Amino acid sequence: MTDGLVVVLTAFNLEYEAVRRRLVDPRLHRHEKGTRFEVGGLPRKPGRVALGLTGKGNHPAAVLAERAMQRFSPDALLFVGVAGALWDATPLGDVVMATQVYAYHGGTSEDDGLMARPRAWEAPHEISQIGSHLARTGAWRDAPGPGERTPNVHFAPIAAGEIVQNSRISREAQWIREKYNDALAIEMEAAGVAQAGHLNGAPVAIVRGISDRADGGKTTDDDRTWQPGAAANAAAFAIGLAEELIENREHTAMQSETPFRNGTTVNNNSSGTVGIQAGTVSGTTHVYMAAAAPEHGAPDLAARLSAVRGRLADQRAAGALDTATHGAADAELDLADRALRDGEPSGNGPVLLPLKRLRGLVGGVADLETSVDELIAAARGTA
Fold this sequence. Notes:
Layout: E1 5-10, H1 13-20, E2 24-30, E3 36-41, E4 48-53, H2 58-72, E5 76-85, E6 95-103, E7 107-110, E8 113-116, E9 119-122, H3 125-137, E10 153-160, H4 171-179, E11 185-187, H5 190-200, E12 204-212, H6 221-255, E13 265-266, E14 286-287, H7 297-317, H8 323-342, H9 352-361, H10 366-379
Parallel strand pairs: 1-4, 1-5, 5-12, 6-10, 10-11, 13-14
Antiparallel strand pairs: 2-3, 3-4, 5-11, 6-9, 6-12, 7-8
Helix pairs in contact: 1-6, 2-5, 2-9, 3-6, 7-8, 7-10, 8-9, 9-10
């Protein structure tokens, strides 16, 4: 299996620390524009998380989400933290995973009032399915302490705006509850992250722990008591979700390596050669072919991998890469090399995945970017 990666972003430090405590050996990763990420292992399964801090608001969250996706080419991006509940039926400490994100500030001001013109983004089907399964199993939860309530997960729309909502009686509060009455939670970053994911074609999940009721109590002792627990619950679910996402992607990649099953017939009526690689050929499969495909592709790709490894070492010696980034990039090359030895690459195969993550790691180092782009093209068979 390849060592998959998920990006997790948070808005402020309490949320960041709740996620960071669950990572194994987090290491600093510096972006050339000044953003600092930490990359650490997952606690129970293979895989890594790149953790970043965006600050409050949809605009900075969108910019940092874009930056993280370009740098790491992750399997998914999760935005994790706390939120206010719009309805009393959602208990404090519970987790909400967004089925939709409403950018509720879209509208037009008319003589007879503010008419809603929202934008909305739906959660990807695959992430929703994995999240629902994880919630059913309860495997994400920590063991509750004495007298502690076991948190639940809710799947519902989340409203994301540009203001701190802390009232039940203000005009804005009444308008939100009237126009977006199916939303369970309200916050300030999900719309920016969802838009960034949409533009990049990357799967995004929004995971929020309920820390208050957006009813005027945000600055009270009760809110300060619930925030750490809500952040911890959101972090626990998000890390469990990251583990399941990476495992699911690896399973899908492995399946793509065994396409000829149960009733598939492959005919070669030309004078050329046909090469087939599969874990098993079973059932009523019939294969007619002249000979195996030539093997010149794999040695050529292996030579390219070796050349990139040399350039990586050169850039580290020149100071263009820090130790942590060099180590992470070298590890991705190890994974690609191991996958290459196990079998021929394909466009969606196990060789390509670590190369795409490698491309994110070396972003900003022109020589390495070009070399890795050529390597990815070769792995896809287009070079």
